[in-house]
Amino acid sequence: MRAIFIGNPNVGKSALINQLTGSRLLVANYPGTSHKISFVNKDDSYFYDTPGIYSLHGLGDSAGIVRDLLLDNTGFRIVNVVDAANLERNLVLTLEVLALGLPAVVVLNQMDIAANLSIEIDVEILARELGCPVIGLPDGEGRGLDRLMQWIKQPLDSDIGIDPLQLEKLSKDSASSQCQHCAQACQHNVITIDRETIERARTIAARVVRQQPAVRRTYLETVQGWLDRPVIGTVLLLALAYGLFTVMVTLVHYLEEPISSAVQPFSNILTALIQELLPPGMVNQVLSQAVPEGLVIPFTIIMPAMIIVSVFISLLEDTGLLPRYSVALERVTSFIGVSGQAIIPLTLGFGCRTPAIMATSLLPNAAERFIIATLLSIVVPCAASLGVMAAVIAKFHAYIWVVAATMLAVMLLLGFGLSRMMPREEAFVYELPPLRIPAWKNTWQKVISRTGGFFTEVLPLLLLMNIVLRALMETGVLEWFKGLQGFSQFFFGIPAEALVAVLITIFQRYLAPLVLLNLSLSPREATIAITMIALSLPCLPVMTMIVKEMGAKRLAFILAMGAISSFLVGVALNLILP
């Protein structure tokens, strides 16, 4: 059996699939969390999670993805997930889904939130009006999920298919969405269909929705009211962001010593074990130093930073604060030619830039997606990079304000320049989700998902890199790079070995600062080197994702911009810093 879950953005499709199957699809409190089709298999039943859409006949990428899924598959049921607190708007998509003639059920989700807003919905009347089963969730007894699962597992008639007229409409919409001129030509027809559907949705909603007298506002509603005010909300959100950054830096600083003390005994045992097992010589000397170092630094610096950043990002997502930053910073993002919603992938990039590139799909057009992908690739450091950069800044007393100001300036200038090169498109409107208390299980799940790569990717690479660096230092290979000393000092004011660190960013950006930690640098040299590393080439995983999402030509442009940015920043800082 197969069930396709369709609904507006942020109505809880992914969360509902998780409840039904025990899966771990990522869930967040903002529209656009699901970017592509995902599916879960449980007991030979397939549950398809789709991107949120407002209409099957929309012209956006998400609507095209859902249409293609419907056109390419047969023998499935549709689960239309509806936000009970916004029934009228959600019913537009419901009516389009029911017109397909496929077996469908309507799930009235978030009934508890609707009740808090004094909204009551007559489920029985709604089922009669729509001519399909309607299930309200949560129902307080847990029976709704059982009813839904039973409905999904019912056998299907083999001859059931999409209504021929609707099939023709979907096929035309799918074809037109691939052609901008055709899409513009078909837009009038889409609006005509929407008007008829909207009137019917309004009529049905008026019959089944009962607005009760307003009750006293909850604490969250009061806070939401303050945050949604333009001036006060912006000040409060910026204060919160500063507070979170301060907490992160403070925690990483205070956790470093106790974690180092806890890891050091294991490091000493490992050193003694290597020295005991291996015969005296170069290999013994390299491994006995590199392996313990390659474990202590990741566990004391990188892992805490990754966990803390992941926790903060997950909390901002689940509470509904992240999309509010989008609105608060709309004027700033408009300067670089993107909407405030671009804050979401940019923020996710501070955790890991690879999924952040995927998250650009929630942006409304290709121009914005490319601008943000470029900024993510060149300017935004991931959590692992932040941890090692912080270690370099602390060890050599680098000028942190210079690093931060330079990164911000490059982001604004690069974004502004790209926005003037790309075609401008009209702004769009998107909804703000209600504030919610985060579900700790969901938050913890996302933290584990985002930090799991520490053990599978970060730690092995750092360990290997540390062994290679230690071998290069012990064998004197790094001395070969002293031939670049004149070039490096003249243009950038840094040793040739530090320039090697900049070049290593093409493999993994967080590996590069490890080279600096093994050097002797002045505060000025450390500042220039770490800034060049922070503004350089995207790492291999990010490059792979860019090719997949945007193509090789876009990647070539981003690589060129990264190299130019790093070079110019190094030259400029060498000229400016005393």
Short note summarizing the structure:
This protein is 65% helix and 7% strand. It is built from 26 helices and eight strands.
Break the fold down into its secondary structure elements and pairings.
Elements (H helix, E strand, L loop, with lengths): L1 E6 L5 H9 L16 E5 L2 E5 L11 H12 L4 E7 L3 H12 L5 E6 L1 H6 L2 E3 L1 H8 L3 E3 L6 H10 L11 H13 L3 H29 E3 L7 H9 L2 H48 L4 H38 L1 H8 L1 H6 L7 H7 L3 H7 L6 H13 L4 H14 L3 H22 L18 H12 L1 H23 L9 H7 L4 H9 L7 H6 L5 H12 L5 H11 L1 H25 L2
Parallel strand pairs: 1-3, 1-4, 4-5, 5-7
Antiparallel strand pairs: 2-3, 6-8
Helix pairs in contact: 2-7, 3-8, 5-8, 10-11, 10-12, 11-17, 11-19, 11-20, 14-15, 15-25, 16-18, 16-26, 17-24, 18-24, 22-24, 24-26, 25-26
What's the rounded overall pLDDT mean? Answer: 79
Number of helices: 26
Structural class assignment: alpha/beta
Strand order across the largest sheet: 2-3-1-4-5-7
Overall strand count: 8
Could you estimate the helical fraction of the residues in percent?
Answer: 55-70%
* Largest β-sheet summary: 6 strands, mixed
- Low-confidence spans: 179-193
Please tell me how large the radius of gyration is: 27 Å
What do these coordinates show?
- This protein is α/β, with parallel strands linked by helices.
- The protein folds into two domains: 2-211, Rossmann fold; 230-425 and 446-576, no CATH class.
- The protein is built from 26 helices and eight strands.
- The strands form two sheets. It has a six-stranded mixed sheet, with helices on both faces. It has a two-stranded antiparallel sheet with strand order 6-8.
- A hairpin with a 2-residue loop joins β2 and β3 (45-49).
- The longest helix has 48 residues, at 230-277.
- The relative contact order is 0.08.
- Residues 179-193 have low confidence and may be disordered.
